[in-house]
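Contributing new records

If you add data, match the layout below exactly. Sequence lines come first and carry their own label; structure lines follow with theirs. Keep one chain per record. Anything else will be rejected by the validation script.
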Amino acid sequence: MNDEKNFINVNQLKQELESYKKFAFSNNLIALALSLTMANATEKIVNSISENLLMPIINYFVDNAGENWRNLVFVPTTGLEFEVGAMINGFLKFVFTSIIVYIFYTKVFKKNENISMDE
């Protein structure tokens, strides 16, 4: 039996560690991590604006019509239900999200387009 295969090759381990450090701490990966973090924070802001500012306005007008539109269900036959209210809610959230992201991108981030991660 060859016992050398059971031992860790220290030089190979050092090479792998160096390779990992180059990968993990490269500017591109750090920029990606920061972008994902910012996207997550932006999602929370957009959801808050949508749920706490825009949706109450829609609820005011729709609820005055006498229906809770978020729970609206279309049942064409027994056992088949289409949750129309949830679909409309999802569509409106998408529209609000895209509008808010557009405003952030064109009005806030475009002003800082000369900033680079390489500096």
